[in-house]
Amino acid sequence: NQRIVLASRPRGEASVDNFRLETVPVPALQDGQVLVRQHFLSLDPYMRMRMNDAKNYAAPQPLNEVMIGGTVGVVAESRHPGYAAGDSVVGMGGWQQWAVFDAAQPGALRKVDATRIPLSAYLGAVGMPGVTAWVGLVHFIEPKEGETIVVDAASGAVGSVVGQLAKARGCRAVGIAGGADKCAYVVEELGFDACIDYKQHREPAALAAALDAAAPKGVDGLFENVGGAIFDVVLSRMNAFGRVALCGLISGYDGQSLAIHNARLLLTQRLRLQGFIVSEHMHLWPPALKELGGLVAGGQLKFRETVAPDLAAAPEAFLGLLKGRNFGKQLVKLA
Ligand code: NDP
After folding, report:
1. pTM of the prediction?
2. What are the helix (H) ranges across the chain?
3. Which end of the chain has less Cβ packing within 10 Å, N or C?
4. Is the ipTM above a cut-off of 0.95?
């Protein structure tokens, strides 16, 4: 069994030296356990925060233990009556080729139907990122028909779903993404009304002008994934009683400043801002997954994946995710 452990904690930017690839035996199964041959590993921005030894909503990733991560795979051997060899399953199997799950533990494993929806999608549009988009948009922003919704990191796993769900609810969807290719994809493939390439608008005044053109009626809902300068500019264009779903601050995960200057608008525009962690809203997963699964199976919800070829390529792919080198959901092929 090949696996990757956290070898050291980053000081400032994370690097490949923080990870170590090891080969260890596959453990023998105990009663109640299930052995899964993992097919795909999900790489997600939250992993960067777990690498620090800092107080957070979740405990730090322990050193010298297999890196945390969501996975999909197929049951190879089962000593739990609820699972049989051949079942397709989703769980937190970590950065390794084989994983043993305590299947009796609630939520440890979830069986999925890989006939109508490709297995990898359960780590993206029909998995944690898709549910994150749904919870932030539907539950916290509560979009109404005709409103303008802005999302940054718009071509990514979460952002791509936010805009498509907003369109389905009759909103104007405006994306912000890095690069002409990503912006073209967001508008032409995903069907957003507009997308701003923030790399072409480095000055806040230029980004604000581009936003005025893309969102002429102002912004009613902001799904915030990035933080820092981009968040600051969009805040300055929020309409009265606008809602901000604060989902992520990826521009600051490697320690960069997240300073904002337009905080007074929270007061003067009477905004509602809610930070949220998707795993704390388990009662919303079933309705979210029902809608997302239906849309993906029916071809109405589009998504894109970047797949690293094997486990050894995972650290580099993970660092790339923090720099925007992924295009859509970042995965690692494990089998
Ligand atoms: P993505 O697939 O969107 O990949 C990350 C993207 O972030 C990159 O492709 C890049 O896009 C963008 N990015 C990275 N650095 C910067 C930067 N300095 N400035 C601007 N953009 C940057 O990742 P996810 O969809 O998985 O996650 C999106 C956000 O949602 C993250 O902040 C993540 O932490 C958060 N999240 C929060 C959850 C919660 O429960 N609250 C659950 C899941 C995700 P580009 O090339 O366009 O810049």
Report:
1. 0.98
2. 46-50, 128-134, 157-168, 180-188, 204-214, 228-235, 264-268, 285-297, 314-321
3. C
4. yes
